[in-house]
Design goal:
- The protein is mostly helical.
- It has one domain.
- The chain is about 65% helix and about 0% strand.
- The chain is built from 16 helices and no strands.
Length: about 350
């Protein structure tokens, strides 16, 4: 028989039926966040001065102008450097590179430092070209010295410096100090015998078939060189954009008058001009005309340090260095030219006024 108590139990609800909530409906979390944001915005609008937004708009316009100025100035030279890189990949092999560059550390660094006379590229174009030369067997000290010296040791920059300052003291010391610093930095890197500890292993060799290249017609070789140049231009161009944006931001939000106001004295003037060279990130083909504007306000040593350090290290070049060298090597590539440029400026200010 069935238990009569079982008939008194309420029937169980199926698990798949929705249960009605007896609690009142609460407002959604999204609605609460939107209301809070609206209240916060209203409070900010009430306490922030009305001219702040006008100032921000003006700064953004200035940022865009400076960014476009740096970018448009640098793009042709990056294009020239990547084009030279493509031509090197197609028309130059390792045996030719071995015959052109001495194997000794000092001879290799000297040869790399004056290689800019053959490849007239600035600090933007020299980086992809150096990477390609490394893939062709360029010795490490020669490549580093070329990277440091080529933005100054090329005919375009030599003539632009002479146009600004004449064929005299400033031009000679700029070339001489650039050569010395480039060779010294190259010799320091020659201590490392394993280039893999300095260079990134991702350095591309976009056409690793040198045997087949010799039998190609000239038009096909040129087509392949242009393809390589285009690939490398877009690869390095994104880092140029990031570097140009950082340089534009620093120029926009750090007043140059603040730097110039503390640029008195033999030490401070050199530090200020080194900071300006880093922040302005001016192409080496036109930096002499910018430096000419500081004559009379700054010492000879500080202007010389500006002309020597700027082509070696600036914001956009650091971003591009990181694509060729490992982080520790990038630190050396920044600090060594900085310290030697600072020392050179101080020597001229204190000992050779």
């Amino acid at each position: 028989m069935l238990n009569p108590a079982a008939w008194q139990q309420p029937p169980r609800m199926p698990y798949n039926l929705p249960m009605e909530s007896t609690s009142p409906r609460r407002p959604s979390r999204t609605l609460i966040i939107l209301v809070a944001v609206a209240v916060l915005a209203a409070v900010l609008f009430s306490i922030v001065p009305g001219n702040l937004f006008t100032w921000l708009w003006e700064q953004l316009n200035l940022f865009a102008t400076v960014f476009l100025g740096i970018f448009v100035e640098a793009v042709p030279y990056l294009l020239l450097g990547t084009l030279a890189s493509g031509l090197v990949e197609i028309f130059l092999d390792r045996e030719q590179m071995a015959r052109l560059i001495p194997r000794g550390s000092l001879g290799s660094a000297l040869a790399g430092a004056v290689l800019g006379l053959v490849f007239p590229v600035c600090e933007c174009g020299v980086i992809p070209l150096t990477r390609r030369l490394f893939s062709k067997g360029l010795p490490l000290p020669a490549g580093v010295a070329f990277l440091m010296a080529a933005p100054v040791f090329n005919p375009i920059v030599i003539f632009s410096t002479a146009s600004a300052f004449g064929w005299g003291r400033m031009l000679l010391w700029r070339l001489g100090l650039t050569l010395v610093i480039a060779v010294v930095v190259g010799l320091i890197f020659s201590v490392e015998k394993d280039a893999g500890k300095v260079l990134k292993m991702a350095t591309p060799i976009l056409n690793p078939n040198p045997i087949q290249k010799t039998s190609l017609p000239f038009t096909e070789k040129m087509r392949r060189a242009l393809v390589i140049a285009a690939d490398e231009f877009f690869e390095m161009g994104r880092y140029l954009i990031v570097g140009a944006m950082l340089a534009a931001a620093m120029q926009t939000f750090i007043p140059q008058s603040a730097l110039l106001s503390i640029g008195s004295g033999p030490l401070l003037s050199v530090l200020v001009m080194l900071a300006l060279a880093f922040v302005l990130s001016i192409c080496s083909t036109v930096d002499a005309f910018v430096a000419l504007g500081f004559v009379g306000s700054f010492s000879f040593g500080s202007i010389l340090s500006f002309l020597v350090f700027g082509p070696m290290v600036d914001i956009k070049s650091i971003m591009m260095y990181r694509q060729v060298f490992k982080p520790r090597a990038v630190i050396y590539l920044v600090l060594l030219p900085l310290l030697m440029s600072l020392l050179s400026g101080l020597v001229f200010n204190y000992l050779l006024p």
